[in-house]
Amino acid sequence: MKRNVLALTAAGAIALGGFVVVQAQPGPGGAGHRHGHAFGLKGITEKLDLTAEQQAKVQPILDQAKPQIATIHQEAMQKMHTVMNNTLSQIRPLLNADQQSKLDAIE
Question: How many CB atoms lie within 10 A of CB 16?
C-alpha cells in the first residue's frame, strides 16, 4: 500500500512536471504558439477554419486572455505544489531510511 501511494505521488509529480515543461516550450507555429496549447490562434484557426479577417479579430481577444490564463495556471501550480509537499510530508514518516533516501532523490 505504501509503495502504491509513493509510486502514485511520484508519477503524478513527474506527469505534472512534464506537462509544465511541454507548455513552456515554443511550438512550430512561431512566436506565441506552444505545443499542447489549444488556446492559441493556430489551434483555433485550424479547428474552426477561420478566415484571415476572423483571425485578425480573434488574435487580440486571445492576447488579452493570455495573462489571465498564465496567472491562473501559476496559482494552480503553487497550490498543487503545496498539496504535493503536504502529502509527501505525511508519507515520509511511514518510510524506512532507504525509502526516504529514494524519496529525496525523486524530489
Answer: 14
What is the Rg, in whole angstroms, of the alpha carbon atoms belonging to the chain? 20
Predicted local distance difference test score (pLDDT) of residue 3 = 60
The three cell numbers of residue 84 are 504535493
Cα 10 from Cα 6, distance rounded (Å): 6
Give the model confidence (pLDDT) of 50-66 as tens digits.
999 999 999 999 999 99
Is the pTM value of this prediction over 0.85?
A: no
Grid cell digits, residue 97: 531510511
- The rounded distance, in Å, linking the Cα atoms of 101 and 107 is 10
* pLDDT one-digit tens code per residue, 18-30: 544 444 444 444 4
Spans of all domains in the chain: 2-106
Nearest to 10, CA basis, from 72, 93, 91: 91
Residues forming beta bridges with residue 92, ordered by sequence position: none
